[in-house]
Records
---
Amino acid sequence: MLSRVVKEHQSRQVAIREQQELRRRAALQSVAGVSQALVDAVNGGVEQAYANEKKLESEAKRLQANSEQFVRQTRQWLALVDGFNQALKEIGDVENWAKSIEKDMMTISGSLEYAYKGSQAGPPPP
């Protein structure tokens, strides 16, 4: 009778161990699945961050190129405007010179007319 109780006890112990082993394996599989899901979720975020970083780098390079082009174009415009301003100054200088020459020519013309009229009137009285 004692041996039968011991055998029943041992068989229950074996059944409990087998059941615990099955539960342990199921728990390990569940933990592995959860771990994989967490890794996938984190990797998805990291992957998205990396893709965004690449896009930002590309946009930054394009922005840099556009900025350099804008600077070159602005310098060309400034040179053009400076040349235009210089030409306007020169035109103003030529205009002033022309007015000065015109005034001198009017003075000379007036003097010549006066001299011509004086010579037409005859010799001056003694």
---
Amino acid sequence: MENWPAYESKMKAEGLNEAAIAAFKYTFEKLTSGESLMVGEDKITPVDNLPSYDSLSKEDPAFLQSTVMLKLNGGLGTGMGLEKAKSLLELKDGNTFLDFIAKQVMQMRSDYGVQLAFMLMNSFSTSADTLSFLSKYEGLQAGDLPLEFVQNKAPKVTAADLSPVSWPANPGHEWCPPGHGDLYPAMLGSGSLQMLLDKGFKYMFVSNSDNLGATMDLKLLTWFAQSGAPFAMEVAARTDADKKGGHLAHKATEGGLLLREAAQCPDEDEAEFQNINKYKYFNTNNLWVNLPALKAAYDKFNGSLPLPVISNSKTVDPRDKKSTKVLQLETAMGSAIECFDGAAAILIPRSRFAPVKTTNDMIALMSDAYEVTPDHRMILKPERNGVPPNVKLDGCYKFVDDMMKLVPNGPPSLIGCTKLTIEGKVSFAKGVTFKGTVKVVNTADSFKELAAGEYTDTTVEL
């Protein structure tokens, strides 16, 4: 821990609170301890059976009074080439993620006659844009409950010697988000956890702002509240499209549940990690937290939840691959499932999981494979039988502004499409329909247009 004093003084100079500093100290200690951050096959066993949403029937609106709905909204979408909150992207009918979320909250309040509490966890990068955008929704803020608290930031670690990285050309690049596991120290350090407890709140539903299927569901709230569980994770059945995402497992020795992320999987276990018949369930990041139990966990672990640490190798300037190599230490909020005795998981329908992580996801959501429900959820149409189209775009479409060159006339029809692969520079004319498995290839250096029409189980070379 020879570098720790430098980190501590840097974080204090930046004005970070004690909870944020304690959380980073824990992750840095894990990194420097020499202890493996990996979760190998020898440490886990598969989860075979879980309770299912389809078996739930009870709904008790009384629980809404003591529940807060929280959206994680810290992501800039840098992986998609964005410099603003990803939730400000327009998806359908001129509506952004934030429009959908605000309308969902207002609809729920109207339907049940309850002033459902709503908060956002923003980041230092998304706070101003988000609050400005949401100001048009009068009454969205619930009473005297603030609309947001802001997540912490963590120092980037120089890969070569584990010292705090210095980047005078843009000092902002010296910091990174500490992963959504920061939810817990951010709630503690901002005073939000204590404030909610003082106001009598007992339950919290947390989900990502880019998942428009994750609404406050009364059946799930009633199940969670009546179960007495301190923590619960909504999981969905893994498909081929989900095989690279984190999965649920049992701890091999102690029992209890844990979440294994791809970055925690040793290379030699990658095939087993991606075996969707063995590890059947993935974390949707829709979580239910008992707030008194969260406070008790902090007391039990002396102010810092022992979340598994994920180390990501990056460059200090994400757009300059020749800049200093750094490690970004992160934690995942779902991994807190292993910090609570009696934590639960429940299998939910795919309709509660419609996130946008890549431009592949965005094309699918923009298409006619998804529809908007009267209560403002984005869900797969029934014809899809719960399985989204598998879209694989060429690397040249990684960023949103480049992806829009593919669909200048609007998205293609994907409602009957199983898999769509695009290789090379292509743009779609208006009225393109894909069915079955289709590949479109252009080997030329300049863009070529795919003409309007229906393409079924074929490879098209332009």
